[in-house]
Amino acid sequence: ARNALFQSQKLEAVGQLTGGVAHDFNNLLMAIHGNLDLLTQVENMPPKACTLVGNALSGVRRGVALVQRMLAFARRQQLHLVPVNLADLVYGMSDLMRTSLGPGILVEASFPLSLPPVLADVNQLELCLLNLAVNARDAMPDGGTLRISGRLEEISDPAGLGLPSGDYVHLSLVDTGEGMDAATLERATEPFFTTKGVGKGTGLGLSMVHGIVQQCGGALRLGSRRPGGTTVDIWLPLATPLAPSIAAPVGTAPAGGA
Ligand code: ADP
User: Fold this and answer.
1) Where are the beta strands (DSSP E) in 95-143?
2) What is the predicted ipTM?
3) 157 CA distance to ligand 1 middle (Å)
């Protein structure tokens, strides 16, 4: 079941990438289709040529249908941004995390109770966390610890993260694994970059996480020492701006009625 889940995550990542490719490919196929159409109108074509053009046309039509399906698939990946309580999300995933990580890896999660909800896509964020957990597992073949924590942070450095100034939740995942060397660290979020070898890694995990975090209006930063482990830092915008008048945390059941 774990493998099926992992495969479906990878498939979703592929879906995000195919969206762009499918669109360009659709335009190319349309041009080929147009030219073949013109060819069928050429007079005195030998019957053999007519058959070949007919075959080519039906191939192009199948291609167009396929690309349409890919586009429809990619469109489903549109993010659905809602207020998300990160502590609830992470604790809710603990069984899934444990299965993904295996017995040798300890997970420590810490979130302040007062942490405000972020604006994100729950399913995609869950997918991100699973991908990051799987990376941490792969970096700790002899076991170790994965620490997941969240805290409220005010960002006001226009240079650093490329985020507008304001309040964010800073989510960090720290593992005690093998870490990355400088060259790997630099390329880690590139699509299809992997050091895991044929059949083991697709190189899509971090690029997908990066894309999703950006689509949520957040930022991602990787830090690593080899040996010593890896830190994945993610900043996500708050669902509601903090204001002194908004005292009750959003997303928790109110104590009394209206
Ligand atoms: P994949 O996991 O399929 O290789 P990713 O995009 O998730 O693809 O990761 C790219 C590369 O970044 C990995 O192959 C690995 O070299 C490195 N990496 C990612 N996460 C970690 C981590 N927690 N510790 C060490 N290296 C990592």
Assistant:
1) 105-110, 118-120
2) 0.99
3) 28
